[in-house]
Amino acid sequence: MNNTLLILLVLMCQISFGQIKEIEIHGKINADSSSVEAVNIVNSRTSKSTVSDKNGAFSLFVKEGDLLVFSAVNLVTLRRRINAQDLVADVVKVQMALKNIPLKEVIINENSHITAENLGIIPYGQKKYTAAERKMYTATSGGGIDGLLNTISGRKKMLKKEIVVEGKETALHRLEYLFEDEYYVEELNIPQDYIRGFQYYCVEDNGFVAALAAKNKTLTKFLITTLALKYNKIIKDEN
Known about the structure:
Protein name: CarboxypepD_reg-like domain-containing protein
Number of helices: 9
Radius of gyration: 39 Å
InterPro entries: CarboxyPept-like_regulatory
Number of domains: 3
CATH architecture of the largest domain: Sandwich
Organism: Flavobacterium granuli
CATH class of the largest domain: Mainly Beta
CATH topology of the largest domain: Immunoglobulin-like
Structural class: alpha+beta
Distance between the termini: 133 Å
Largest sheet: 4 strands, antiparallel
Low-confidence stretches: none
């Protein structure tokens, strides 16, 4: 008889517990320096879920003892057990932590084209000054007495010559890497010992230098062929 009463008592307790109504709670998610929008909240007992709004607010039906799971791409997953205080609170405050996302390793090799523009240091299309051009700009941008003194002293004239020389050096440097020695000898018929002299001869031609600067390889090849014919004639006449 006692055992029967005990079983009935246990069953009644289970039925009473099972009849406890779910309560809708209202919560607010906080996270330092991170978005709290679209955080996924799941009640692990019922599998019911919701998501937070842009302010981190959410609502969900729960019972005491339910386990809620909070997850987001940018936040560390949090599991929180609902207690009696949560059921009577106006707002259930939930503090989440920012997830540390490791960055992939970036490998820069010799073929990587790293410039101040693609690094975001200067805007695209902005004029780039060479060292000599910067000196010239400094000497002429002030105007007034400074500009007059620079003109009288001949500094402007000297800087203009320096810009011309620098431009030829840049063109020569580009030309060195554009064609192999075999191209000069086999395609242009320039003797091996005259290759360097021919390169200097080419960078004296303004049209050729402009084609080099524009990286127009088709035009550069056309012009260098014409210049090679003239240069070979000079060599022939000298000999």
